[in-house]
Amino acid sequence: MESLNLPLIWAGLLALAVFMYILLDGFDLGVGIMFPFAEHDEDRDIMMNSVAPVWDGNETWLVLGGGGLFAAFPKAYAALMPAVYMPIGFLLTALIFRGVAFEFRFKATGAARRLWDQAFHWGSVVATFAQGLVLGAVVQGIHLEDGRFAGGMFDWLTPFSFVTGCAMVWGYTLLGATWLVIKTEGELQAWSRRVAMLAAVVVVAMMAVVSLWIPLLDFTVAARWGLSYPDIRWERLALFSPVPLLVAVGFVFLMRGLWRGATYGPYLWSVGLFLLGFVGLLISIYPHIVPFGLTIQEAAAAPNAQGLLLAGTLVLLPVILGYTAYAYWVFRGKVQADAGYH
Fold this sequence. Notes:
Shape: globular
Number of helices: 15
């Protein structure tokens, strides 16, 4: 263990947990965002049935990410949480409403059913927007003094975090729409393709806005991409230029797949766009885990504690991956309106 760079390994594991959460829970939150705009009640039944067997398992990755941050990087956890307590509260409250809607909507009729429809929809919207607020607050930097949060209660509420919140809502809508392209047929599938096309255009536009905005937040980020005004480090800019170029390529293939009626390609290309955005974010903030106050090494727990946690995680992680893969295999294929999981 002494020869291993445990803080870097744990940073990689946390990045994996965060991306897996975005990848998996993103599409089921996206289905909830689209929910009230479907034309028929039967369409809404199919939409909910497409995510009902897997949504709670998807949120395992959120627990792993939060728990891993608390245990492996306690200084980062202590610095970050006070800065985003309020949007985290919104997120958890919305997830509770949404989770209850899964259980009660199947048994409700009439006005009660409409109530749980709205709970599912607004729970998904608020949870997603709150995640975007947290992302924006973290990326724009946390005000620290002596390693502790020294900002105000509403530091997270800025124009930048509002834009990242909106971008997250459209991003999850894209994942949800392309997921429904896989799981549905007929008119609902055609409607999902149209929603995905609109969402893809908005997502790429908002990725461009956020990408141009981030270097203006901190000169450290601009320098990381080679933009040390008034000088430009062309070799560094060339090193990272494949990221935005691949976003453009991914967008073209995504739109072509949707136009030509592909089933799985649009979802995979949507995941690719999220992955590229995630890589761009990591390039911007590395080696900080709390931008721009604490590095990965500074925030790490004691080596023996990280080593013990890693041993447990190496057992737990294959189990999580295994039951996740098994659940998706069992519930594979197209979904029908009467195929409730209860």
